[in-house]
Amino acid sequence: MNALDTAGLDCLAALAEAGSFDRAAQLLAITQSAVSQRLRSLETHVGHLLVVRARPLRLTEPGKVLLRYARQMQALRADAARELGATLSRDERLPIAVNADSLATWVLPALDPLVRAGRSQDGSQGGYGLELIVDDQDFTHDWLRQGEVLGCVSTVAQALRGCSCQALGLMRYIAVASPGFLKEAAPKGLTPANFAKLPFIVFNRKDDMQAQWVSRAFGVREPRLKERFVPSSEAGAHAATMGWGVAVLPELVARPHVTAGTLMPLMPEVTMDVALHWHQWKLGGSDAAGPLERNGLMDQIGRAVIAGARQALAPMAPDNPQHDSTDRRPGQPRP
Q: Rounded to an integer, what distance in angstroms lies between the CA atom of residue 248 and that of residue 243?
């Protein structure tokens, strides 16, 4: 296949990001007609339909293949611009996908030195446009596979072709509730007789951590729980302190509340350890140097994520980097 038109690839990436032709035109600062023309030219060149023109539009499988290529080209352009001291255009963004619990705990501190180092003396952001996309840790890998992001934090332990994968560590989860809630609703604590009657605070419908914890604690297969959905790690912890119900939280999130006495651990001997991994596309050809030695922007992000995670998370067993004590096969979709 002959060299692909970079304007067409940028157009495809904008369409994937925006979800419509008019919004893609706004992102690229061109007319909607120009977006259509560039897309048709790219489709003619590769001989495949790349976008299903629906509301919202979606990419075909060939479109997803080219989107991965487009994102990688944007990252390489960002590297070149950084080395030349040039200013990046707005479409030169480096999207990565992370799970909400990692974002609420260790991801921002891990990336902070790198992001702040990219600022110019006048305080403006230079170097790259970092974008954090949040999804469940079992589903962030789908964003990488579809070309929407260049790196992700995931439970999946197997690297995609063209990607590298590094073990990060174990995120430990514990069950907690407020003293007031326990006094009123469960004075004898959480038991096999009362867990189904008590509300559990759940992040969203992809989240089955609470059910996994109850299964482990009481040996109940596929327990049915009363759920109260709070789609934020920090807000879920706050809801638990207010007495909304039982929460299964990352120990990193729960620890300050336990120390302050606003939350109490439930059955502290029962914990859930989720193994996390960092995936990123290999950019710039040969991977001989390894992801920790190259110096592209994505490689710097990868090193920052790996270093931050290994400071905050529990280490994995060296002989079992795929350890996941939730008893869920890494990468298996949650029910």
A: 14
